[in-house]
Amino acid sequence: MSSTTERNEKKPLAILTEDPVSWKGQSLVSVAQITPKGFELLVTISQQMRDIVRSEGGDDRLKHKVLATIFYEASTRTSCSFQAAMSRLGGTFIHVDGQGNSSAAKKKESLEDTIKCLECYVDAIVLRHPETGSVPKVVLSTTKPVLNAGDGIGEHPTQALLDSFTIWDELKDDPKIVVFLGDLKHGRTVHSLAKLLSQLRPQSKLILRFCSPQILSIPDSILEYCKNNGVQYEIFEDATKACQDAQILYVTRIQKERFETEEAYESVKGCYVVDNALMDKVPKNMIVLHPLPRVDEIATEVDADPRAAYFRQMENGMYVRMAILALVLGKSSP
Amino acid sequence: MSSTTERNEKKPLAILTEDPVSWKGQSLVSVAQITPKGFELLVTISQQMRDIVRSEGGDDRLKHKVLATIFYEASTRTSCSFQAAMSRLGGTFIHVDGQGNSSAAKKKESLEDTIKCLECYVDAIVLRHPETGSVPKVVLSTTKPVLNAGDGIGEHPTQALLDSFTIWDELKDDPKIVVFLGDLKHGRTVHSLAKLLSQLRPQSKLILRFCSPQILSIPDSILEYCKNNGVQYEIFEDATKACQDAQILYVTRIQKERFETEEAYESVKGCYVVDNALMDKVPKNMIVLHPLPRVDEIATEVDADPRAAYFRQMENGMYVRMAILALVLGKSSP
Amino acid sequence: MSSTTERNEKKPLAILTEDPVSWKGQSLVSVAQITPKGFELLVTISQQMRDIVRSEGGDDRLKHKVLATIFYEASTRTSCSFQAAMSRLGGTFIHVDGQGNSSAAKKKESLEDTIKCLECYVDAIVLRHPETGSVPKVVLSTTKPVLNAGDGIGEHPTQALLDSFTIWDELKDDPKIVVFLGDLKHGRTVHSLAKLLSQLRPQSKLILRFCSPQILSIPDSILEYCKNNGVQYEIFEDATKACQDAQILYVTRIQKERFETEEAYESVKGCYVVDNALMDKVPKNMIVLHPLPRVDEIATEVDADPRAAYFRQMENGMYVRMAILALVLGKSSP
């Protein structure tokens, strides 16, 4: 958390541990706040949430609590899963669309003032903003928990946490080989997940494999982060080879607009379509994840494969967010 | 349901009968799913809903249930009545505006994927989409009930059902003569209601009268549908004559933009304004319906006439949607 | 209420008194409806609401009640505080964005019809509309309570009420000297608050001071209103002098676009920045209010001053709106 030194001097971000009290009233800005034992707590409560939703639909532990979801950038999946999570725990939400027509957008109020007003009305705030660093900055002047739902190319901690939850939940064990496939240069979710895995299992036998065309390869800073945490990494260009003995394949979209020429794009896109042909060549129990939305990097024919876990991953997003809301609002038990 | 043959081979749409179990967990895509006895069940439960709302405001039978309302086209009335319906039964909703700024709109995700993600979070989905056939197509790949809130010029079953409910509720008896007035060529609600009435009372003494300028006359396919169901129809151009002995007058808007010339529009618009002068000439107990919004085809002076039932019809929309939500979520009793 | 003569002939606006029954089922269109004793009732219930929120988060007195918030003009603060207020009392809300993409906006339905439809679904309506006089006009044809959330340069009664509530709540006594600072020509909140204070304490020792550059001075009609109510007023241009012996400083934004020349703007903006330097020169217990959003007329350094009450004022907005909703929905007691 070197970049947060200045912030820490003013108002340190809480370290979130296996003690639920350490979460209560705290903001979640970065996965760096989560200890390995804290993650285990989150996994346990998320699984409890799934049981509750499947048996009863929800409970009333957040009754009379109000959440604000404020999105300065659209993200249907993230906003809807937080809103459903809050609803299923008996709470309510108000939504602010910070784009376009909102008065927040029009009246040039500072982000700090907008959030300080909203926290007069609600018990917690989910904030997404396109500007990197905006969410940690806002947290300096708030008194209610703020949950970072993505700040530009900064952090999106609940996404990394739901990805990690899904890995442990699917494997029922520590992962040994995790493959990241696609545009590893620009994909924020890849960076966050690689860092979080390194942080959760430092000095372990975990191997992270990064498979991409050279021009979209993983930044050195991420490799450095792995190394510093004692986690091995390997670089691949061939998807089939990368998947050998792997338990997890994490696919991201290759965005055509990132390429300088049409030819460059055409030269690589073919090898990175996960279809039944590829699935035939990879381990029989290798789980496929994707943060979604996908365009065509996973063929819809794969959806019926039991190894395709990306819709289960979506669903887990709600359970993990229910757990986080329950924890920061001091209601980890019903 | 000839157009659904392909769908039916894969995943037949449920036939919705007088047995509440036949509704549970099912999608409502087309009025063709509803049997005459199924409609009677819906009428009974909708009336119960009205009693509950008027005495208590609502109940808690859908507690911990979450509805998604996703609208790729604006429809304030339809979305609000579904949202209020869900709220009054103790459930909650999340809303996705599929237009403009939404990420669904921006990221080019397929409609199927968007809906498959949303159903990870919620118990049922209300979907409106401008593309005809989009909703039945989506239903093929979903596991949660999807309620069609309009797919282009396709179907809008809850509108036809609330229109029919209002007819029976106002008359306390089967209608004998129903008049459709206005633009019968383009009006989706007219087509759906005419088909539903034919289907609910086939081989009956029901007479459907279609009154419009020739250039806006009812399509032959609808007349064919009536004929095949053994329902009589009559064609009119004069509103007063059409209303003779009628119990129901269903008015729709004549949209100026449908006419090729200003003169063509001017030539007909006059005869189709329902005002007090017209109301003086029609049966003393003839009920006036309109799907709303109106522009000027019903003068506001008519609102005070006890025969003007279009705002009661609006209100019924909520009760019918409450009944549908309760049925598909398996809670037809509190 | 001279401008409401025509309305009163048709459907008089209720006078809202110390008897909760006088509020039940009534619309709140104008502060002119509120008697001094009615305001005392509102203060008492608002304070109760604060206690409830701080101890329990809310209660269930509005369970199964549904509120519609319909905004033809964005106002994040007003809509969010009403929505949170409704939620905290156990009710729910549906929101209609009357701008841009809404069908209300597209289909040219009259405002009266839109509201008449919405009231079929809900128990009360919060309405904001840019056109002055639109809300009182709509109230003529509705049967459910309509709460005016701002009609152009007309009224915004809940703002004036929360401002007044904050004054009494902060002072625990009647104010003796209230200073209005900034653009007093265009500021609707200043006009409403000045009128409300005059109405609440007519023939009293209350002094209202209006401090602005000459080109942005308070309209004569407001001064007339004070005079007719036996309330003294004084005109200032110097902020420090205006604040002498004052208990309340109500700051509003000076909008650059109101000035004819850049020079005119530059000539005055300096004197009206409330910063620590100014705060050093004013009374030690003078409370600073602002309707927010601010741009730079109050320096953020002032936020930490205990006299800066504008965020408490925001928070009070929710309590006052909870009290109003409870009163008009007949649930002033839990």
From TrEMBL, chains A, B, C:
Can you cite a GO biological process for this protein?
'de novo' pyrimidine nucleobase biosynthetic process
Entry keyword annotation includes Transcription regulation: no
What is this enzyme's catalytic activity, as reactions? carbamoyl phosphate + L-aspartate = N-carbamoyl-L-aspartate + phosphate + H(+)
The record's top EC class is transferase
Q: Keywords for this entry?
A: Pyrimidine biosynthesis, Transferase
Q: Which positions fall inside the Aspartate/ornithine carbamoyltransferase Asp/Orn-binding domain? A: 178-327
Molecular function GO terms recorded: amino acid binding; aspartate carbamoyltransferase activity
Does the keyword section mention Cell cycle?
A: no
Q: By its UniProt entry, which InterPro entries does this protein fall under?
A: Asp/Orn_carbamoyltranf_P-bd, Asp/Orn_carbamoylTrfase, Asp/Orn_carbamoylTrfase_sf, Asp_carbamoyltransf, Asp_carbamoyltransf_Asp/Orn-bd
SUPFAM superfamilies recorded: Aspartate/ornithine carbamoyltransferase
Domain Aspartate/ornithine carbamoyltransferase carbamoyl-P binding stretches? 27-168
The catalytic activity of this protein is classed by the Enzyme Commission as 2.1.3.2
Q: In which pathway does it act?
A: Pyrimidine metabolism; UMP biosynthesis via de novo pathway; (S)-dihydroorotate from bicarbonate: step 2/3
Q: Which PROSITE patterns match?
A: CARBAMOYLTRANSFERASE
Q: What does this protein do?
A: Catalyzes the condensation of carbamoyl phosphate and aspartate to form carbamoyl aspartate and inorganic phosphate, the committed step in the de novo pyrimidine nucleotide biosynthesis pathway.
What family is this protein classified in? Belongs to the aspartate/ornithine carbamoyltransferase superfamily. ATCase family.
Q: Which NCBIfam families match?
A: asp_carb_tr, PRK00856.1
Full protein name: aspartate carbamoyltransferase
